[in-house]
Design goal:
heterodimer, A: mainly alpha, B: 167 residues, Butyryl-CoA Dehydrogenase, subunit A, domain 3, two-stranded antiparallel sheet, globular
């Protein structure tokens, strides 16, 4: 007979079938030979049996209202609160693209702000009036363009004379 | 639901000790199952999954209302009131179960802490392995062993005490 008595925990584990095969076999052999341990094991086994019998005696059927209530709640569209909506938006699948889009928009916005023209000079209306000739001179050969004064002045005789001398 | 509803309801009833809480727990557990159906891994035990949901809901409920989930048993070993403040229903069954009168077993079970009651019921009544119990209650197999040993020790003492005091 094995004189080393298994501890109570081991007897409970044996009862629950939780021991590895070699330990299980050793406890089994010990119980067959040791009346003291066999008695302790029987006490544990009867406690388990009492619990099972008590549970079985107190067993109840599932109330029919439970099934109906579950079906009603499962089939009813779930009302989503504002907080749940917000939480759904804050989920990474939604929040990351939104954050990325905001980041890009912010980046482009600040770049455009920094690269903007230093300032637009306001143009006075008098500019167009005073510089009208210059504007028209930009297209000197148009039919409506006035003939420049240098071409219509009388002071052209000298120039004509020099042309004649070259002939 | 037809297949697992009764087992789930009875487990919830044994945990809470009263019908309204057991109904609520069962309903909420099945609703969560329906909503999280996609997260269920084929090949794993459905019963373990739904028991885990029931266990978590019960623990959350006790923490929310009483903050006594892991409270140690009272010195006087008086039955505790669990289940949303309602007194635990004790329904004596006037018969002896395997050497133990049923009423002391029922009273002793109700006198355990919710955590102890859970682990005893899962191991001795529902016949889950320690590995499965660890997954259901969210702890290691070693913790299951130590909690179960402690809970059974308390239960044994309480049953013996109530047997002596019962008329």
């Amino acid at each position: 007979m094995n004189q080393t008595h298994p501890p109570l925990e081991q007897l409970v584990e044996y009862l629950h079938g939780e021991l590895a095969a070699p330990q299980d076999a050793a406890v089994h052999a010990h119980l067959a030979a040791c009346s003291q341990c066999a008695s302790a094991y029987e006490a544990e086994a009867s406690l388990t049996e009492a619990l099972r019998t008590h549970a079985k005696a107190a067993e109840r059927d599932l109330p029919s209202g439970v099934v109906a209530a579950i079906r009603a709640r499962v089939e009813r569209p779930r009302q989503i609160s504002a907080w749940e909506n917000l939480r759904a938006l804050l989920r990474p699948a939604f929040a990351l693209p939104i954050a990325a889009a905001l980041g890009i928009a912010l980046y482009l916005g600040t770049s455009a702000w920094h690269n903007r023209p230093a300032g637009v000079t306001p143009i006075n209306a008098a500019y167009y009036v005073n510089n009208h000739a210059a504007l028209t001179a930009a297209a000197p050969f148009s039919e409506d363009a006035p003939i420049p004064a240098m071409l219509t002045s009388d002071d052209t005789s000298g120039d004509q004379q020099s042309v004649d001398e070259t002939r | 639901m037809e297949q697992y509803g009764k087992a789930t309801y009875n487990f919830a009833y044994r945990l809470t000790g009263n019908e309204p809480d057991a109904r609520d727990l069962t309903q909420e557990a099945f609703i969560r199952v329906f909503r999280a159906w996609r997260s269920f891994r084929p090949g794993t035990s459905f019963l373990s999954w739904i028991y885990r949901i029931v266990t978590n809901l019960h623990r959350d409920e006790l923490r929310r209302h009483k903050g006594r989930y892991q409270e140690e048993i009272l010195d006087a070993n008086e039955p505790q009131h669990v289940g949303g403040g309602r007194p635990l229903a004790v329904e004596p069954i006037e018969e002896y179960v395997d050497g133990y009168p049923s009423e002391p077993v029922s009273k002793a079970l109700s006198a355990l802490t919710a955590e102890q009651r859970q682990i005893v019921l899962l191991a001795d009544v529902e016949d889950f392995s320690y590995q499965e119990i660890g997954e259901i209650v969210g702890c290691s197999v070693g913790t299951v062993r130590s909690r179960l040993h402690r809970a059974r020790g308390q239960l044994r003492n309480l049953v013996n005490r109530y047997m002596k005091t019962s008329p």
